[in-house]
Amino acid sequence: MKTSRRVFIRNGALxxxxxxxxxxxxxxxxxxxxxxxxxxxxxxxxxxxxxxGTMKKLAAMGYKHVEHAGYGNRKFYGYSAPEFKxxxxxLGMTMPSGHTVMRGDHWNKESNDFSDEWKxxxxxxxxxxxxxxxxxxxxxxxxxxYDGLLQFMDVFNKCGELCKKSGMKFGxxxxxxxxxxxLNGKKLFDIILENTDASLVAQQLDVGNMYGAGGIAxxxxxxxxxxxxxxxxxDEIKSEHGEMGGYESTILGKGILxxxxxxxxxxxxxxxxxxxxxxxxxxGKTPLECVKLDLAVMKKWGY
Length: 303
Hints:
- It is a single chain.
- This protein has 303 residues and is of the alpha/beta class.
- It has one domain: TIM Barrel (Alpha-Beta Barrel).
- It has helices at 3-10, 13-19, 22-25, 44-49, 51-61, 81-90, 116-128, 146-164, 177-180, 188-194, 217-223, 259-270, 287-300, and strands at 35-39, 65-68, 71-72, 75-76, 94-99, 107-108, 113-114, 132-135, 169-173, 182-183, 186-187, 201-206, 230-233, 235-238, 247-250, 274-277.
- The strands form five sheets. It has an eight-stranded parallel β-barrel with strand order 1-2-5-8-9-12-13-16, surrounded by five helices. The chain has a two-stranded antiparallel ribbon with strand order 3-4.
- Helix 6 (81-90) packs parallel to helix 7 and helix 11 (217-223) runs parallel beside helix 12.
- The longest helix has 19 residues, at 146-164.
């Protein structure tokens, strides 16, 4: 997801050798199932206008799994967790993951515990059947304080323990700043990967977000084999209006990224189980038209 999304939320040989590490890295009690889904931010305006009607259209296209970006006040797009679970079930769909930012104030250092607000977030995620609870951003102040970031990575691990009690994993989703910003000579992305427990904290690799900041998905997958249980599958084109380093997303196969090679590498080496389609810019088409085409491309590729 790109900068506008963050605003919206707030308001080779190495591969072969690395593949052998995947089983050990993924040992956990959480069963992450292989699937293709859609990030509902792709159709955000449609979801605002008519969440149920939009979900029905997605189901008719052939989508069986969705990832939310619309949780707040214990509601998913205006529905309680039990209500939204029923909607999903009636449509033959599941919601294996979702995005809710875990803020710094969700952890209380004095009590050494999570806030009730965050505990409810995890509880509701479990109720709707999520496998991963994903935070798609970091507080700005944490991005400027190396020691503070390390401490928050420990909170990530603690959240993994919290989620594990409900049969889930905690997860983190990258934007572009993790690749363009550094602390103590290390990119934020490397700090996050090196200081989170792979058995507790899943990484959702957004293969498009990173590109404008110099992140190359295939290189990242090879560098950290087995670490990416989830992937945001997207393609990119150069754009004057693109907010991710001058790029914006487009229909799969129409851009400049080797998307099929990336998803294949994710499946073979990256430990990827969730392939989540996300498109945020549409080049004159409607969002629903685009995500229908995206799903057709994934099916053509054998997913």
